Structures are given as structure tokens and as C-alpha cells.
Amino acid sequence: MFKRLLLTGTAALFLIGAAPITQQGSTTQSGVLASPQEVLDAAPASAWMTVPAEDLVVMTLADGRKIDYQLAPDFAPVHVANIRQLVRSGYFDGAAILRVQDAYVVQWGRPDEDKTEARGINATPPAEYEFTPPARFKPLPFRDAYAEQVGHAKSWPVASDGHSAWLIHCYGMIGVARDVAPDTGSGTQLYTVIGHAPRHLDRNLAVVGRVIGGMEFLTDRPRGTEDLGFYKDDSQRIKIVSTQMASDLPADARPAFQVLDSDSPAFAAWVQARANRSGAFFVKPAGAVDICNAQAPLRAVQSAPGTN
Amino acid sequence: MFKRLLLTGTAALFLIGAAPITQQGSTTQSGVLASPQEVLDAAPASAWMTVPAEDLVVMTLADGRKIDYQLAPDFAPVHVANIRQLVRSGYFDGAAILRVQDAYVVQWGRPDEDKTEARGINATPPAEYEFTPPARFKPLPFRDAYAEQVGHAKSWPVASDGHSAWLIHCYGMIGVARDVAPDTGSGTQLYTVIGHAPRHLDRNLAVVGRVIGGMEFLTDRPRGTEDLGFYKDDSQRIKIVSTQMASDLPADARPAFQVLDSDSPAFAAWVQARANRSGAFFVKPAGAVDICNAQAPLRAVQSAPGTN
Predict the structure, then answer these.
(1) Are B88 and B223 in contact (CB under 8 A)?
(2) How many residue pairs bridge chain A and chain B with CB atoms within 8 Å of each other?
(3) B195 and A274 in contact by Cβ < 8 A?
(4) Three-class secondary structure of residue B220 per DSSP
């Protein structure tokens, strides 16, 4: 259909051997390569890890739209424990989307004037902005403006300088809002990235998860009219009617997601396919891919076939 | 205000000397540095270039919201001539936003089934995907995943491999939609980037401009439910009631914008400030900035004080 195929890069082709990852600025003439979608379609079930229900939060807005997000206990355990407690204690039930700043972040929680107590949390968690480089860190073979190395660890986007590592503020990643003092964020207000990755925030805030379902129900909101995109008052805010841990929902009501394992050969092939787009549409494959254009593929599944 | 300062990085500090651009992965301890906003506030009038009215398009939607976009005749002259002709001939009046794909693009024009003739254009323009590296190209001193060099030319984001150069698909940049064949885009359907820069599109489509006003009136739309985020039918599309060249509007009705000149010392200082965020909020300045996080600052002005 005229102009309906454009910008897709998923033309149907057969995989006839992996293409080389070419250097930046050059192009590959290595011929036919599978599209990213074809690599995913061909990935074995063993390459997909189920998102643990105890790491999955379901946030329901007043208009009935649901946002699912995954917590990252491996990288920010104290903040994640706080968020699980805030969810289970009902802290976010009746909270709201407070801020939508175009090309930057959507932020939710309870507004400054709301003094609802956050019960049972660690009110002054350690910063958790950085961690020891993970054993399972798989760096990409491409340059990055901000870090010596970027890649994936347990399918999360991670940067490293060799001594320290940190989660990257890619689109959809979730961080803990804080005040000016670096130790003032407990998890009572969270934000997610809705624009080009604001990498200057890396190592300056605790990154605790990522949106894996319903992201478009956050990004299509009116931008806030106040400084930093805050909504003017309660009349503009979008209410959160409930937030629940998926593990607390009846099995038949639980959303379930799988993420491609960054340790799997399929993941490596998918990165190559993202870096070297094939098909009739592409004149010049990039030969590289930015870490935030190579976020681990996720898929919704009918029911959780167990946890990894 | 509690948690209202977060993620701003524009704390008020005095400029007491430029900081070094530190290497990626390291942090700067060079102390107090001006914020990006302070650099802009201190920039002389001579550092700001007025966007020529003949390069500025005003698109008015059915709900009255206006989007202003700037054309790039220096880099895609044939496509820009086509777009000026399409605007002046009324081609886009009665067209619509056809596609909103989350984290990717918003696309507008006339739908496939609309056979309205595009009068007076070059129906098969040269691709204009690349050009000779511009004399005024100012590369950033930072790594890039996709190109040997990235930087600015006449305040546009440009990548170069030394032999060829091209405009970069940053947030808000506008390209010409096309069919699978690389020579099928004339300018009758345009798209703008609403997510993390899809750099794999660089050198594969003609980039012809950028949105400089009302971007949030494109990004806050419901995402399309069809493949690639296309709207299902006319009932979902957002109509474009008129599109005009600012130069064809009465002087008192013309929007006017200025862009910081990438050849100015103020621009270089602003890049340094973006790369090394200062202020009480930032624990670890990045020491670098991605080209799409360093798009030339723009400002609306009351009336056009002449063109550059």
C-alpha cells in the first residue's frame, strides 16, 4: 500500500547467514539478512525469560487504562522493596500522574501537598545509582557518547566504565524522583522517560524498572502547563485508582510478559539485525545501533508459564 | 518545592569560567559551571539567527492548535521547493495526521485513497539523503554510535563520515515519507520523530526540516491502532485545516523564531553546559552529550527583526 510500508524495515526475507557488524559510518553490502522481527519469530522458547510476577506492577488509571511495569530488584533492591511495599500498602491508590513534560518524562505519585504517610518503607535508602559491573554484562560492539561500554545485563540496558555500572535512562525506563539532595528519593514518586534518552540523568537518580505494557497510555497525555511539565492542579491530574503487584492478582487475572534473554544467541542475532536493517526499504544499513534503540524485546503472553 | 526541582539541572549559578569537556565515562570536578539556560540568557543578540519566514510553515489543525516547522533548503532544496509549492497550492489544506506510532513518528498528509493532485512539484526529486560535508560543520568532541562525526551545521544536527554528510533523525526532525522504492517520496506525506532518535533512518530518507513550535500538539495524540500506528480511518484522523508559509502571512500575524547560531561562542559554551550539568542536583555530570540531546536552542520572538 502506498506509503504504508515506509519506516518499517521488517520486509519478509529469509535468514541466510548472519551479516557482519560493520563499523560506524560504513554500510554493509553483505546482502540478505533477517529482519529483527524474523529473528524474534525464529527464537526458541528457551530464549524467552518470563518476567517474574513479583517484579510486575499493574497500575490502573481512572479511565480504565492499565500500565504494566517491571521492577529491577537485581540493580536497586532497596528502592524496589520500597515500591513493592508502597504498592501493597495502597499508597499509590488515589495517587495521580502529576507531570508530563514533552520529550522528557511522565511522573506519578502523590502531589507535594498530599501528606499521606508512606508506611513500612526505608525512608532514606542508599542511592543505588551505581553497582558493580554484573557478571552477565554483554557489551555492544558500538561506540557510546556517555560510557566506555553499553550493553545488556539480564536483558536490562546497562552502561559501565569498567569499575562501576549503572542502568541507562532509555525510553520507558523508570526512575525514582528526588529533591535536590541526592538522598531524598524513597520511591513515593516515580517517573518514566518519554523522549530521547536523557542520559545526563544516569548515575544521578535511582533507576528501578521499566514500563512493559501500556506505555502509550502515559505518552499520549496532555503536556503539563507548569514549570517542568507539572499539571497545574488536581483538575488536570490523571488519577491512579489502583496499583497492584501481579503476584497478588488471581492467576487468571495476571498479565504475563516475556523478555528476550540477553545471554541467548537469539539476542545477539537480534542486535545484529537491529544494527543492519535489511529489506527493500533500506538503502544504507546503519552498521550500528544505539543502546536505547536496542532495548530487550518484550512480548505479552497469555498466562505466566512459570518464572525464570 | 518538594520534588519540583528534580530533573531540571537549571539551578541558578554564575558562570565563573568554562569547564573542560571531560572524557566519556568520567566526571568533571571542575566546580561551578553555568547551566545551559544561563548560557542562553547570557548569549548576545548576535548569537541568535532569525528563522527566515520563507522557511517557516504554520500548520493549523481542526482543533485550532498550530504547529510551526522550519524547512532546511540548504540540505534538501528540491524537496523543500516541493513542500513550499504543496503548501502554497493548498495541498495540505484538508489533509490530516494519518499515523501516530508510539516512540517513533507522527505522519501527516493525504491518505492513500485521496487522489488529490499535487500540482507544480517535482514528482521524482533526487533522493537528497546525503550531501557534501558543509564548510560550516562544527563536530562535537564526543563519540557517536552511528557516525564518525556528529555536530552542527548552520544549527542543524549533522553527521559525517568525512566524505558525505547527512541530517540526523533527532526528536522533532521532519522527513519525507516514501514507499519502498527510494525515489518515491515527493513531500506529499511528511513525518516527525516523537521518540528516541531512529538513527537507522539516517541516509535512508530525505530529512527536510524540524518542528520548532507546537511539537506537543503532535506528541499528545492517541496512538494509531493499525500497523505502524496508522489511524484506522478518517474518523480517527486529525484534520489539517490550513498550512501556510509564514512569509505569506501579514507581518503582524507571523510567528517568529530565533535559533542559536552553531558558529557562535555561545553555542560552544551551551554544548559544554549540556555535557557537564552543574548545580546542586547533579551528583555526576555526564561529561558528554548525545547530538540529539544537543539540538540547537530555539526561542519564539515577538516579531521577526529581519532574516539572517
Answers:
(1) no
(2) 213
(3) no
(4) coil
